[in-house]
Amino acid sequence: MSFEINGKTYETDEEGYLADLADWNPEIAGHMAKEDDCDLSENHWEVINFLREYYDQYQIAPAVRVLTKAIGKKLGKDKGNSKYLYELFPYGPAKQACKYAGLPKPTGCV
Amino acid sequence: MSEPTVKRFMYINRRAPYGTVYSVEGLEVALIGAAFEQDVCMAFIDDGVYQLKKDQDTSATGIKNFSPAYRALGDYDVTRLYVEGESLQARGLTEDDLMALTYEDEDDDWAEKPSIRLVSREELSGLIDQQDVILHF
Amino acid sequence: MLHTINKSPFEKNSLESCLRLAKPGHDILLIEDAVYAATSGTIVSELVEAAMEDKNVSVLGPDLASRGIDEARLLKGIGIVDYAGFVDLTVKNDKVQSWL
Predict the structure, then answer these.
(1) Which of A59, A83, B23, C87 is the most exposed place for a label (fewest CB within 10 A)?
(2) With an 8 Å Cβ cutoff, is B46 touching chain A?
C-alpha cells in the first residue's frame, strides 16, 4: 500500500503503518488523520511527539498500558488515563497515535 | 467477573544477538506476554548473556540495534532479569559489562531499582522449577 | 587459504573444527557471532591463542561494535579488519572456506 502527498509517494504496510520510519514528517501525520476524519489538535501532537521520543529512546512502540502510564508520568494524571487517550484516539491510543507518528504497530498489540 | 489467571512465565534466552533472530524474537514475545499482564521474568544463560552487553553499536553494519528495547522492560513490568554468573564467567564477562537496566518499584514510592539479578546456576535451576510456563529462545 | 567462521564458539564447534584442519600460514577471519572468540578471558581463549602462533587470526570490526565489544577486550595480536579489509583478504587468497 502507499499514499501520496505533494507528488511524493510513501509506502505503508497493509494496515497503513509507514514502511520507513525515516520518511516521516508532520504532514504525513496530518494526512493519515484526515483519512480517519480526525483533526489533529495540540493534545494529539503532544501524544504523537511523545511516541516519537519514546521510540527514539527504546526502539519500540509501547503497548497501550505502557503508553498510558508513561504519559501520566510525563504530562500528568489528567492525561495519563485511558478515557483521555481514547477520546483523542478512538481507534486505540497506541495503535492510532503510533500510526500517525510513523512508528510500527505497538509491541504487544495483536 | 472472575480475576484473569496470571501465570508465571519465564523466557529463557540462550542466543547471542544479531547472528540469529532468536534474541530479538524472544524479546518481542516477552514484551507481548507482559502486555497481557502475566507475571513475566527472563533468564539469560549461555550466549544469551551477550544480549545484555552494553555499548552495542550496529551503525557500521546496517542492522537495527535493538538493545535499547531492553530498557523498556521495566515499563512493561518485567522487572526480573536473571543472569547466570557461570555463563558470564565462561565468556570473560562480569556484571559491569552489562547494560544498567532498572525499573521503578510501585510498592516503594517508585524508587529506581536494578532489574538484572546475578544468580548462580543452582539458584537459576530453582527459579526455573517455580515457573508455570517456560519458553526458550 | 582464507577461513571465515560466523558461529559462536560457545554454541557450535565450527571454530574448533576449523582450527583443527587449517594449515599454518592460513588466514582466519572471525565474523558475526564468531567475533566473541576473539575476546580475552573466555573458555576458548587458549584455543585461539594457540592458533595465532602459526595462523593469521583477524576479526571483523563492524561485527565487534554491533556486539558492544571494545578493542581493549580482544586477545593480544588479533587483527581488526573493516569490510574493505575483508575484501582484501578474499582477493589475496586463492581459496575461501566459510565454516557454517
Answers:
(1) A83
(2) no
